[in-house]
Amino acid sequence: MSVQVTREVFDEVMVPNYAPAKIIPVRGAGSRVWDQEGREYVDFAAGIAVSGLGHCHPKLVEALKTQGEQLWHLSNVMTNEPALRLAKKLVAATFAEKIYFCNSGAEANEAALKLARRYAIDTYGAHKTQIIAFTQAFHGRTFFTVSVGGQACYSDGFGPKPGDITHVPYNDLAALEAVISDNTCAVVMEPLQGEGGIISPTDEFAKGVRALCDKHKALLVFDEVQSGMGRTGELFAYMGLGVTPDILTSAKALGGGFPIGAMLTTTAIAAHFKVGTHGSTYGGNPLACAVAEAVLDIINTPQVLAGVKQREQLIRQGLEAINAKYHCFSEVRGKGLLLGAVLNEDFKGRSRDFLLAAIDQGLLVLVAGASVVRFAPSLIVPEEDIREGLARFEKAVAQVVGA
Ligand SMILES: *Cc1c(COP(=O)(O)O)cnc(C)c1O
């Protein structure tokens, strides 16, 4: 029996930790999405920087179907071919020598934090447990990762937190220098802050963090859950910064919409996750890895990565033109196809109004905090869809500014 469902059903039967939009999308193709009423939307959100190749990319559909008829799941009692192929390709493409698979960004970061702690305690002693992270950071919603993330609104109210976590402002090297010591086990950072407002590290800061970690024998963990997999126009953002982390986490666009996360590190560090120290039933699931392998094959090509930078220019030009007319942004910041239009004093705190007006005009965008409208379209969004999306965004801006 098929059950008729509407948005009202959400309030009836779902835990109220989300407040989803009024529309229910039912179908997607490339950078377009259709809702229950058949209304069409241009997608500049990509499921929060997840659908890096748009919706239902034929190569990903094919990978999913082929693997879906072969083998879905085994658990880690056995290994499997898709996981090994994907791991080999990630190793070949990055600084990493060893890969751990899981199902989400939070789990990848949870693994990274536990590994950093275990490595430091094994290598230097029980005192070396301090984790330093940055205010406005976001690292996921498990209790450890949300405590490391620098936003009290997400981590408070759940009782005692994991300890020895210190927060300092992003892009403030002196503040980091003041708290880092030989007791520091790891510094965790997004090499382009996403949820916190689309904030790029300065060159001096990124290099300075690496140098301070080296000085105090602390591991540098890059959370590339949002910034990675081509988002910035490099396969991973660290490549554009010229700063190599000791541990890197990936998720979101890694599976192009199929849940998967990964932690990448070196052989020497990985050695401290001995048999039985950590795990995940689904980690390295063949379906997820088969899709992610197809994603990586497409994204890690000069055409796609160069295309990200071309599309960035188109979107920046479009947003500047809109701003010249409506004067609502103080700047457009970010890198590649992770861009933030920062609302000026007149519109401060109203990013959600822009998001809702965009939906009215047939466009999906994101916010990054109360005063930044975030754009994270598919890395291969067609030029025609960029132009149409920008035209719709202009109407949404007119709607907000006129109101
Ligand atoms: C989304 C995000 C996470 C959490 O990923 P989940 O898959 O939701 O657990 C962690 N870090 C960053 C930088 C993110 O953007």
Strand order of the largest sheet: 4-10-9-8-7-5-6
CATH class term of the largest domain: Alpha Beta
Q: How many whole angstroms does the radius of gyration measure?
A: 21 Å
Q: Give the CATH architecture of the largest domain.
A: 3-Layer(aba) Sandwich
- Annotation, overall tally of beta strands: 15
The main pleated sheet reads as: 7 strands, mixed
**Class inferred from helices and paired strands:** alpha/beta
Mean pLDDT: 97
Could you state the oligomeric state of the chains shown?
A: single chain
Q: Into which percent range does the helicity of residues fall? A: 40-55%
Flag low-confidence runs: none
Helix-strand sequence = HEEEHHHEHEHHEHEHEHEEHHHEEHEEEH
Modified residues (N6-(pyridoxal phosphate)lysine): 252
GO molecular function, one term: identical protein binding
Pfam family, one: Aminotran_3
Cofactor: pyridoxal 5'-phosphate
